[in-house]
Structure formats: C-alpha cells, structure tokens
TrEMBL record:
It comes from Arabis alpina (Alpine rock-cress). GO terms for molecular function: DNA-binding transcription factor activity; transcription cis-regulatory region binding. This is CRC domain-containing protein. Residues 1-17, 49-66, 77-88, 526-536, 658-669 have a biased composition (Polar residues). PANTHER family: PROTEIN TESMIN/TSO1-LIKE CXC 2, PROTEIN TESMIN_TSO1-LIKE CXC 2. One of its GO terms (cellular component) is nucleus. It is found in: Nucleus. It comes from the Eukaryota. Residues 375-500 form the CRC domain. InterPro entries: CRC, Tesmin/TSO1-like_CXC, TSO1-like. Residues 1-22, 44-118, 515-536, 631-669 are annotated as: Disordered. SMART domains: CXC. Keywords: Developmental protein, Nucleus.
DNA sequence: GAGTTTGAAACT
DNA sequence: CAGTTTCAAACTC
C-alpha cells in the first residue's frame, strides 16, 4: 500500500507532514464522515501551566507530570462523559486547546455517533501529539494533548511522543484504514489503536477496546473482540458497555488518586463521583497503606471509616486480583472476565497484591475473610514491634490493625513518627527495601516465542531467592510465593520452581502437574481444600499466555520500583499499573518524608522505544537498582537481572527507562 | 494450637 | 562481603 502517508512516516509530527497527512484522501474521507471538525494544530505553549495537581518535588522534572496530566485528561474525559460539568475540567481552564480536545472526546463518547468520528479524533489527536512534541518540548509529553488516550511511544528525556513514533502509530492506523476505504476494519483498527495507545492500566485498555468495539458494531454491542465475549455471556448487550465502562472507570478512579492526593482531594469530591466511586477510590489509597497520614488520621477520628477503607482497599484490590477472582474463574468460563482479570493481574505485580493473588491463597483467603482486618496482613510479630521488614504489615506499608496478633506493635498511627523514622532508616539502608519484590517485566512479550515463553509468570523476583531446602516449591521461596520463576539472580539450590527454574528451564504443564502430584503425595494426600500449589498453579495458569495476549498488553512493561509491596510502579500508564500507581502515589504524596522516593520512582518510569529495549531487556537493568546496588548493603542481592538479548520480541515494545540516580532519602531533610 | 522448618532480614 | 543471629511466616502434626 503505497500511500502518500507512508512516505512521511518519519516526518509525521512536523507541520509539513501533518499538512500532507490531512490532505490525504483518507483523511478527507474520514473528515467527511465526522461531524466533528478536527482540531487544528494549535500550539500549546505550556500545556501544564494550568495544571494544579500535586506535583513531585520541583527538583525532579518527573515524567509523571506528563502522565499525570495525561491521566487527568483521561479521567476527565471519561468522567465527564457522564458528568459534562465536571469540575475537573474547569480546573484545566487555561488551555483552550485541551478543552477543545476534551470536548471532542466527550462528544465522541457521549454522542455515540460514529466510529469514524472516534477514530478520526484519535488520529487527529495522535497527530497533534506528534506535532506538539515537535513544537514545544515542554509539551512533549503528549499527555497534554491526548484526551482519552495516551500515546504509547514514550521516549525518555522529554522526547516522549516523538513525532516519528507518533507518526508511525498514525501511519499504522492509516494503513488499516486505507485499504478498506469504504469499510474500514474497525476491529483491527481498534486493535491497533489499543496497541498504539497506552492506557493507564490494562483494564483501561481492555475497556477501551470493548467500548470501541461496541461502537464499531453498534448493532452488535456484544461484540467485544478483545474480551472475547461468549455466547453464553449472561450479561445483556447493554451490560457490556457498562462493564467496559466500569473497568475503565475503575482504572480511572484509581488513577484519579494520583492527582488527588494531598492538595487535590477536592477534585474527587467535586467530580460528581458517586459515593461508591469515592469509596472505591479511597479504598485504594489505604492499600498503600503505608503509614499514610491520612489513614492514621482516619483511624483516629473515624475508625469505622478506616476499617471500611481498609477492607475496601482489599476488596478493590482483589477485584483485580486473580486470587479472589480465582474462585470465580474456577466456576465460570467467562472469557471476558478472565481476560479482564488477567489484565488486572498483570497490574498486580507487586508482592503485596501478589500475595493476595498468588501467594498464600489459603492463608490470605483466611485473612481476607476475616472481615474487618481484611486489608491488614494480620501479622504476628512478637519482637520486631512491627517495625522491621519481618513484619508483613510494615513491609507492605500498612498499619497494623486489630486483626493483627502482634505484640508491642509500633506500627500504628499513634506511632506514626516512629514508623516513618524507622521506615526512613530502612530505606536509607536499602532504598528498595519497600519496593516490590516481584518485577513483572515486559518479558511477557519477550518471553513469548522463545524458551522462556513457557515461564508462566512474566516476572522475576527482584533480588532472587536464596532457598536451600524448599526447592523453591514452597512459599518460603519468595519467587514461588510471588508466583514468578526463579532467575539467574537467585541463589537457590535445587530449584524446582514451577514458575520457572533458575537455570532457565521451565517446567511444562505436565511436568508441573506431576511434580504437584508428587508434592501432594508427599505431604497431604487428600486434603479437601485445594492445596496451595494447585491454587497458585491455576492462578498462574490464568496469567499464562495460554492464549495470545493482546498486543497492547504485551507491549507494556511494568516497572519494579515502588515503594512498598502495596505500591505499584508509577502511574505511567505505560506500566498499566493504574491501580497501584494510585496507591503508590497516594502513599508518598501523603508522606512528605518519602515524597522524594516517589518522584524518583516517577522518574524511573520513562519509556523508550523498542530499540532501547534492546539495551535493557528488563527494566531493572537500567533502573536505579543498578545504581542502588552500590548503595545497598544487600548489594549482592540487589543485582540487576541479567541481560538476555534473546528475549526480545519482534513487535513494537515500550519499556520503561529508569532514572539515572536515586535520590537518597537521607538527603531529604 | 503448638512445634518445626525455612529463608529473609538484620546484625556482626 | 561473608557468616551468624534474629525473626516471623510457612508448614507440619
């Protein structure tokens, strides 16, 4: 397909190419179909000037800003779809262009008028994105321009959304349209859109696909290609959009936390958010737990709320956790849900959630079923005063609450200062002490197609385990517990980790089953309850690329660093870690003492084009960890995963680029 | 529920 | 950095 557009692949993003682009027959055709006029390339001098959300310390020009903006737009757009008079929007007052875009987005969503229009808008936005980046470096984050969607192509150092990449994206979309002028392949187009556009979470992406597909087939609303709705789908076609929207909004809600933390709390309430939504949103916050001042206060003043929040957090978390879903999944064959959950699971890379998910199904369920203390890990510390990493609660960044059986617990709001001080101390010793232990990398993609593809979990334990006797087959093993395979970083002996062995070999399902059987024979032959391994196995298998994962998911890379088990990598949608990002941010934004850490983390989540991926097959490679390695007393453990060039995927891929250095917490004060 | 095992965390 | 101790979760009975 030699189209005029193709020629300007590398030029797109420049005014000239843009002009050509808009002059193309296809573009004109699309334009003619849309009641909405494409927004002309209005230069955006300072896209962020009007933003008022809480920003990281000025010392860092965190990319998060851009994404924050992006996310805020995302939030605004979708939210406003149901609440046209969204206050948030009014907050973004200074940028008329953005508003125009937002309005377009709303129109696109609300009017449900035409697929063409939607796509057109996307295209125009993408093009604008590319343009803006070339026009104004400050606006390079394309988040400033993108409304519903964020452009995937992020490049580090303010080169986000490079014209070239954007152009490519647009070109690709065009390529799909071009050949089928009269009857564009919306599905593929949407698929591409999903692929090209990054969402703050896989859920969003999925939801987006669903929504788009629904639009694409107005009469066949139940078609949700990505979700793979089945005919047995009990839900009516009407429910689908709702579900999609729900997923979408869920992510949005989570995401909104990013911006509301300290100063923007008002935003949420202003947002016409329903009580439920608000609750949900809030629920997420606590999960970060950590020693969130807000929580502390809440616990003091309104304990009921706290409890509610806590439990809410858990519930919310579990909504996306395969663990909880597991049972559901076991009973239902609803692919849609499964898919959605898989997406969510992808997001749940961090150990805390992983624990809820993959690790200790038995215990966690027990805990989770405890009602009030659901969110609490119910530690049982006797001597550590819950001020050491031994304490799960502390390690997870949450206060101990009643369900805990700890003794002399200091991990409580009333000892907030102590907790924070201790935490800071620990972090000073090992900046990654509270970082997620399990890293879910883009390997899900990379591994696909090669030997490692058999590895169920596209993740690795940050430092690797050190198992000697458990053969990495018990939850003593952090890798196993996290549902990930052992890696070269592990110093385990006799590794038999079914999620992936240290030596790189992987146990296929059959072998896996055999080993499980053996294990079962060994200890508990006929336990009524599903044994841990079974559960983990199932959960993991659900996460396995049994069926090809949507490209958009494969392309996402998740980053490791966040500061607590419960915290996920920064928002950058690129990570697809919507929920946790919110959590993460919440915690740190609320905690001035560690805000630096946050900004650091944010900075560490820059994305780069695939070519760069080659340089760092695993995010962590170039991540602060590498730098921190020298800082950490446990340097021997905090080693960067080895590079495995063979694990590159052929497709486009974005990975997160780490930041150059990690601001020491000790320098904060 | 008590006791044992295990490996991470902390310490020297 | 290696070895040891402490600790609490995981596990077993």
């Amino acid at each position: 397909m030699d189209t005029p557009q193709k020629q300007s692949v590398t030029q797109i993003g420049t005014p000239i190419s843009k002009s050509k682009f808009e002059d193309s027959p296809v573009f004109n055709y699309i334009n003619s179909l849309s009641p909405i006029r494409p927004v002309k390339s209005i230069p955006i001098p300072h896209p962020f000037s009007s933003l008022n959300f809480t920003s990281p310390p000025s010392v860092f020009t965190s990319p998060h800003l851009t994404s924050s903006h992006k996310e805020s737009r995302f939030f605004k757009t979708h939210n406003s779809s149901s609440h046209p008079t969204n206050p948030v929007e009014s907050r973004d007052d200074s940028n008329s262009n953005e508003e125009v875009v937002a309005e377009e987005a709303e129109a696109t969503i609300d009017a449900s008028r035409g697929d063409e229009a939607s796509t057109e808008m996307e295209l125009s936005q993408i093009s604008k994105c590319g343009r803006s980046s070339s026009d104004d470096p400050v606006a390079s984050s394309c988040g400033g321009d993108t409304t519903v969607l964020s452009l995937v192509p992020y490049t580090p150092r303010g080169e986000n959304c490079s014209p070239e990449v954007a152009g490519i994206g647009m070109q690709k979309m065009y390529d799909n349209v071009q050949p089928k002028n009269q009857t564009p392949d919306w599905e593929s187009l949407i698929s591409d859109a999903s692929e090209l556009l990054i969402f703050n979470s896989p859920n969003d992406s999925e939801a987006f696909r669903c929504l788009m597909m629904q639009r694409a087939s107005t009469s066949e609303a139940r078609f949700c290609s990505g979700a793979g709705m089945t005919n047995n789908e009990p839900k009516s076609s009407d429910a689908i959009p709702y579900e999609a929207a729900s997923i979408l909004h869920r992510g949005v809600r989570r995401r909104c936390l990013d911006f509301e933390m300290p100063g923007n709390k008002q935003t949420m309430s202003e947002n016409n958010t329903t009580a439920n939504e608000l609750s949900s949103s809030r629920c997420v916050v606590p999960s970060i737990g950590l020693h969130l001042n807000a929580i502390a206060m809440s616990s003091k003043d309104c304990k009921t709320n706290v409890t509610h929040d806590y439990s809410g957090k858990i519930q919310v978390g579990l909504q996306g956790s395969s663990s909880t879903m597991q049972e559901t999944l076991d009973q239902t064959e609803n692919e849609t849900r499964e898919d959605a959950y898989q997406d969510l699971e992808d997001v749940l890379t961090e150990p805390a959630l992983a624990e809820l998910n993959l690790s200790s199904p038995k215990k966690k369920r027990l805990k989770l079923g405890a009602g009030e203390g659901e969110s609490c890990k119910r530690c049982n510390c006797k001597k550590s005063k819950c001020l050491k990493l031994y304490c799960e609660c502390f390690a997870a960044g949450v206060y101990c609450i009643e369900p805990c059986s700890c003794v002399d617990c200091f991990n409580k709001p009333i000892h907030e200062d102590t907790v924070l001080a201790t935490r800071k101390q620990i972090e000073s010793r090992n900046p990654l002490a509270f970082a997620p232990k399990v890293i879910r990398s883009s390997d899900s993609v990379q591994e696909t197609g090669d030997d490692a593809s058999k590895t169920p979990a596209s993740a690795r334990h940050k430092r690797g385990c050190n198992c000697k006797k458990s053969n990495c087959l018990k939850k003593y093993c952090e890798c196993y517990q996290g549902g990930v395979g052992c890696s070269i970083n592990c110093r385990c002996e006799g590794c038999k980790n079914k999620f992936g062995r240290k030596d790189g070999s992987c146990i296929d399902m059959e072998t896996e089953l055999e080993e499980e059987n053996e294990t079962s024979k060994k200890s508990r032959t006929a336990k009524p309850q599903q044994n841990t391994e079974d559960l983990v196995s199932k959960e993991t298998s659900s996460a396995l690329p049994m069926t090809p994962m949507p490209i958009y998911r494969q392309q996402l890379v998740q980053v490791p660093f966040s500061s607590s088990k419960n915290m996920m990598p920064p928002p950058q949608s690129l990570l697809g870690a919507g929920s946790s990002s919110g959590i993460y941010n919440s915690q740190y934004l609320r905690n001035p003492d560690i805000s630096m850490t946050q900004s650091w983390n944010e900075k560490s989540f820059e994305t780069v084009a695939e070519d760069r991926a080659e340089e760092m097959p695993e995010i962590i490679v170039h991540s602060p960890i590498a730098n921190i390695k020298t800082l950490s007393p446990n340097s021997k453990r905090v080693t960067p995963p080895h590079l495995d060039s063979s694990r590159r995927s052929g497709g486009r891929k974005l990975i997160l680029q780490s930041i150059p250095s990690f601001p020491s917490l000790t320098h904060q004060n």
